[in-house]
Design a protein that fits this description.
Blueprint lengths: L18 E9 L9 E2 L8 H14 L2 H21 L1 H5 L2 H15 L5 E2 L5 H14 L6 E11 L2 E11 L3 H21 L6 H15 L1 E2 L10 H6 L1 E2 L1 H14 L4 E8 L2 E10 L2 E5 L6 H7 L14 E3 L1 H4 L3 E3 L15 H4 L3 E2 L4 H13 L4 E6 L2 H13 L16 E4 L4 E5 L1
Parallel strand pairs: 1-4, 6-7, 13-14
Antiparallel strand pairs: 1-2, 3-5, 4-5, 8-9, 8-12, 9-10, 10-11, 14-16, 15-16
Helix pairs in contact: 4-5, 7-9
Length: about 400
């Protein structure tokens, strides 16, 4: 029997987190007639002048305008609550700040006063927004101005860092919507969210090459237009496609093999699962191990998995409380009938027969736990019972295995 060696999916990946790109601090002494001065910008901003402008604006505000603003805010609140995980788990006060930041970033506004005076809270909620909204492809950080009287912060202004000018952003938005519309037409029109999640996973993997040097590799443009990206691009594009189909999905960051990494938490048919599209792509696997050419073109080990499964190889940076994913009903191997809860010869025969009927060139099975995995592995490989299910392979077969995810792939 030809052994190709053990195959593990714990490979290196590059992930760059958005950075806070500067702090503009405005301070002032207390006392009548003393003016605020800025330490890090050329223009001196006077607090009294800002207050006067705010007072004038307030006086001109009509009851009708207030009603419109309340209506817009209620609409935004409803939309954010259902589809965006980060928004749903923060406090009402932070949700208000979230909407302020999101509106500012969406409209590319400059220095918007926000409802918090705490820079730590601003940073926290900014990250919640960015993890929820992959369509903010042109944002790579933010700045703020802080106004103080003595040691007391009186105002905090937020300003996003944009990688493009407004006109270019609008052009890209149009192109993105056109491209996404084309992709959505390919995805299945079904109420079964598993089928949508699987199709989007397969589409991105089939259309994208893993490339550390890819342009815009931290956002959705890299996948949609260049078809080359890294983990952030994979994860954000997957997230965006699912959101467009009305499925809740959020970006998750952390480490894998001690390197920064990004993947997704998704809600499928009412249950939470983890998905790592990057680790499903053979081009990613081969980028780290060029000698192992016997790799399934799509690795389904990380499509809709539990917290226990993902934590075998990934370490999660918990920005907020995350659900304990325990459901397995919509795990790929369970849904596709490739899951073994014991060594079942009848089921194995069916699995291999279906693979031949579908003209597949490989079969992958997943086992319930480590004991079942070792039992199945011993019988199929050590005792060579796999040849009972193989047609025309002679005395050798190529296989790969992932002990951490308890899966084995055979080339047929």
């Amino acid at each position: 029997m030809l052994r190709k060696g053990k195959f593990y999916v714990g490979l290196q990946v590059l992930h760059i987190m958005p950075a806070i790109l500067g702090v503009l601090s405005l301070t002032a002494c207390q006392g009548k007639g003393l003016q605020d001065t800025t330490e890090v910008v050329d223009t001196v901003v006077h607090l009294d002048e800002i207050e006067a402008e705010e007072s004038m604006t307030t006086e001109r505000t009509t009851i009708q305008e207030q009603s419109e603003e309340e209506s817009i805010e209620e609409t935004e609140q409803t939309e954010q609550t259902g589809l965006y995980y980060g928004y749903s788990v923060i406090s009402p006060k932070q949700q208000n700040l979230y909407r302020e930041i999101y509106r500012a970033l969406t409209d590319c506004e400059e220095y918007v006063e926000v409802s918090t005076l705490k820079t730590e809270e601003l940073n926290y909620v900014f990250n919640c927004v960015m993890n929820d909204h992959p369509e903010l492809f042109y944002v790579d950080g933010y700045q703020y101005k802080k106004y103080s009287v003595g040691d007391v912060v009186t105002k905090l202004y937020f300003y996003g860092n944009y990688t493009m000018r407004s006109a270019q952003i609008e052009q890209y938005k149009v192109r993105i919507e056109q491209r996404v519309s084309e992709i959505l037409d390919i995805l299945p029109d079904t109420t079964d969210e598993y089928e949508i999640a699987k199709a989007a996973y397969e589409y991105i993997i089939n259309e994208t090459q893993y490339d550390l040097e890819a342009e815009n590799n931290q956002n959705i443009c890299s996948v949609l237009f260049n078809k080359r990206s890294v983990c952030q691009g994979y994860a954000k594009t997957y997230q965006y496609l699912l959101q467009k189909k009305g499925i809740q999905a959020v970006l998750i960051t952390g480490t894998a093999n001690q390197d920064g990494h990004a993947w997704n938490l998704v809600k499928i048919n009412g249950k939470y699962y983890y998905v790592d599209v990057t680790w499903g792509d053979a081009s990613y696997i081969l980028s780290d191990n060029q000698e192992n050419t016997s790799v399934p073109p799509i690795n389904y080990d990380y499509l809709l998995v539990t917290t226990e499964d993902i934590c075998e190889t990934h370490q999660i940076d918990e920005l907020y409380v995350l659900p304990e994913c325990t459901a397995t009903e919509d795990n790929y191997y369970v849904r596709e009938g490739l899951f073994l809860s014991y060594y079942d010869e009848t089921k194995l025969a069916t699995i291999f027969e279906k693979a031949y009927e579908a003209n597949n060139n490989y079969v992958t099975i997943k086992c319930l736990d480590d004991l079942i995995y070792e039992d199945v592995r011993e019988k199929l490989m050590d005792e060579q019972r796999v040849f009972e299910f193989i047609k025309g392979q002679g005395e050798q077969i190529t296989y790969t295995e992932n002990k951490q995810q308890r899966t084995i792939s055979f080339w047929i």
